[in-house]
Each structure stands twice: as structure tokens, then as C-alpha cells.
Amino acid sequence: xxxxxxxxxxxxxxxxxxxxxxxxxxxxxxxxxxxxxxxxxxxxxxxxxxxxxxxxxxxxxxxxxxxxxxxxxxxxxxxxxxxxxxxxxxxxxxxxxxxxxxxxxxxxxxxxxxxxxxxxxxxxxxxxxxxxxxxxxxxxxxxxxxxxxxxxxxxxxxxx
Length: 160
Hints:
By secondary structure, this protein is of the alpha+beta class. It has 3 helices and 7 strands; from the N terminus they run E-H-E-E-H-E-E-E-E-H. It has one domain (about 15-150): Hotdog Thioesterase (Thiol Ester Dehydrase, Chain A), CATH 3.10.129.
């Protein structure tokens, strides 16, 4: 029986932290010490599309999470500093079949204090490049985390 509580089975490994992580089943690794987060997933039939290969939405989810956690690592060695995806473009390059382990890795390529430009790669365990992505990620200031207005997190408050 699996628990829905976040699990850390070794330093830097995060399981079951979010609803998306529990639903998809990926493992987040923020403990490599190189500033890049990794999302690992063992693909099974629940991750495939009608053609029998990993669904593009699953690939994008893995890339988004690895890239966002990489942004977090730029400020916090535990990868817990919240970053939000502002935009992300994904290029699908090769299929990945059920039974394959894939890993998404993020890498900061630019940015400033509040916005980061992050690239991501998704590879199969044999080294095949499955997809790439690039995106813009926004750091969530600590005072915005307590707001009950979701728009305020992005700085989209209205002047009422």
C-alpha cells in the first residue's frame, strides 16, 4: 500500500509530493549537486497514447517538472523554492515505448532575479533523445505564497 504523503527514500529524491506526481508516477531527483533537477519515469501502458507510445502530454509534464525544479535549485538546494511556468515549448523527436525508463533534465540558460530561461531534455535509458523543451519560469516571492488570490502569484492583481 502506498502513502500519499511525500516520501524521501534518499537525500534529494522526492516521491508523491504533488497530485500530478502521484497521478503520473514520476520521481523527482534534486540531489545531484549540479544545479539540474531530473524527473524519472518508468513508462507503462497508462502513459501511452493510442499508438502505443508515451503520450506527448506526459513528456511535457516530465520536462515541465524537471525544468521548474531546476529553477528552484538556483535558489534552494532542496528544490523547494516555488517557480511557475510562464511559457514552454516542446519539440517531440522520437517515441518511447512502454517498459522504457525516461529521464527529463533541466538546465538554466539565462535570466535574472525573477525570471529564468530553462532548457530541458527528455531521454530514454538507452540515450535516445525523446523530446526537448525551452521555457520561461518565474520565481514566486515568499510574500505571494500566502495570498488567497491565485492571480497575485503571477503579479496579475487587479487595481480594484
